[in-house]
Every structure is written in structure tokens, then in C-alpha cells.
Structure prediction request, 320 residues.
Amino acid sequence: MGILERAKDLRKIIKKHEVIFIVGHKDLDLDAIGGALGMSYIVRKFHRDAYIIIDDETFEPGVEKIINQTLKSNFIKSTDLEKKKKNKNLLIIVDTNKPFLLQNSDLINQFSDIIVIDHHQPNSSSIQNGMLLIDTESSSACELVTELIYYYGIKLEPEIATTILGGIVLDTNNFVVKTHAKTYFAAYHLATFGADPTKVQFYLKQDIKDYIIRQKVIIDVEIVNEWFAVTAGDESIKYKREELAKIADTLLQFNGVTASFVVGRLVDGNIGISARSEGKIDVGVILEKLSGGGGKQEAAAQIKDKTIKEVKKQLLEILN
Prediction:
């Protein structure tokens, strides 16, 4: 069932609560912050209080720009929850369905009522309770939130529309992957409110040092079985999940590459794998063999207590 078929129920649930708290995943990207801001706008149009929980201490450049231009009273830390709670409280989770990826993994234990709005493939480690609005065919959380905005007939301010468009552009890699007719319609609908593609590109501007680090990872790519591009980061460098994802997106743009896999040590010390596919190869099924998962076109895995070399070797054995 698509998100619009449950939009009436979603509105009823929101209106039953006094305060709505909204949270995305750790290491916020444009899709998570755009989806969160979009949902907070919807909630306020329903005359309910809304707060976005952000515990990240550092931000990627685009997210930092958005946070700096947004009213700070919208944002709280999870330690401020009890000050803001009233009798009826609701938690809305955007752009992830895994508790361990939340800004604070304990949040789901602090709410009896939960809604998940996400486009990633769920698995056994996903959130099981609450209203789960998960559409793996959608490009992004921002696309799903735009569908709700359209359904409810809500008008957006240009800055909010631009931020939400940024999330769609990020997760589709500029409308290259996971792009369908409804993705284009969402972008069109946001444009009617003054969403600015030029400003989106400003949000997407990269730090040149981060870009150079990613290029060094790309240089070491190897092609496996003619179709798979596989590379790994430096063992001494810790990467954010979105950095590995950006490298995987870039590798998918080369001729002959049907799927890409990037291995690197994450900020939390675990080994991460980010995978992307044109759709012919199901990378989610492949990474399930490494206790990860995801959709057909994008997937990820996190492995504890191993080196990059060991994880890459496991991956190559699977691909071969």
C-alpha cells in the first residue's frame, strides 16, 4: 500500500497528539533533514507542535547551510525531550527504519506511538511497531513527504521547497538513479512553490578535501566479472556512510559498470559497505550475505571486528 492510501490515517494519528517529535538518521544528509523539515511543516499546518531531534555535533556542508538558515527553535537534542513532552506525544522517523541508525537509538523506547516514513528496504533489524510507511520504489524520503504535501494541499515557502528538492536530487544522483514519473512530478510540484535548483546545487557543493579523499578511493577500483566495480578505502581513514555512498554513485556512472561496491572504515569503527546498482543486479540480496541488506538498487552493510582487507576479501568471494 502506497503512502497516499494511508495519508488520511496519518493525519488522524498526528491530530490525536499534542507534540510531534521528528528524527532522522545519524550523520544527517539532505534527504533526512529535508524530510524532517517537510514533516514538521505538515505537522504545524495541522496545528500541532513539532520539534526535530538532532544530536549530531558536526554536519556535512549542505546540511549545515540549511540548519544555519532555519529557525533554531525547531531543533532540540534528545536530552531536551522531557522538557517538551506533553500528555500525548508522537515520534515520526524519516529516512531510516533501523533503530541503531537513529540520532539516538534509545528514542523508540521512549514513545508508545511511532510513525516511520522511509524508502529503504526493511529487514529483521528494522522497527516493527507503529505505522510503517515504507515505499522502496520511491527515490527518497523527500519524495514521500512531497506526496503528502500534495495530497494535503499544503503550500510551502520557497526555502522549505528548495530543501526538500535537495533531498530528492541527492538520493537520485541528479535524477540518474531510482527516478520514476512520480519523482519528476514531486520535483515539479516543489518548483511550483519556488524551489530553486541553483540553490540546491549550492547545498550540494562539496568540501574539496573530502572530494580528494573520495577520488583516492576511486583510483584503486577493480572490475570484477566485467560488471562489478569494487574499491576500498584507506585503513587509517574513517569515512561517513554518505561518503561511501557518494563513491558508489560515482562508480556507477562508468561504462560497463552494472553495480558498485565500496568498503571503508566508518566513524564508529565498524567496516561499512555501500552498494549501488542500475537495477539488473540486486545489491540488497548480495549484501544480505554479509549481514547487510537494502533494495535492488542501493544497499549497505556494517561489519564488526574485521579489517577492510578481510571484508573486501569476503565480498569478492561472494561476487565471484
User: Anything to note?
Assistant: The domain at 208-319 is CATH 3.10.310.30 (Diaminopimelate Epimerase; Chain A, domain 1). The radius of gyration is 19 Å.
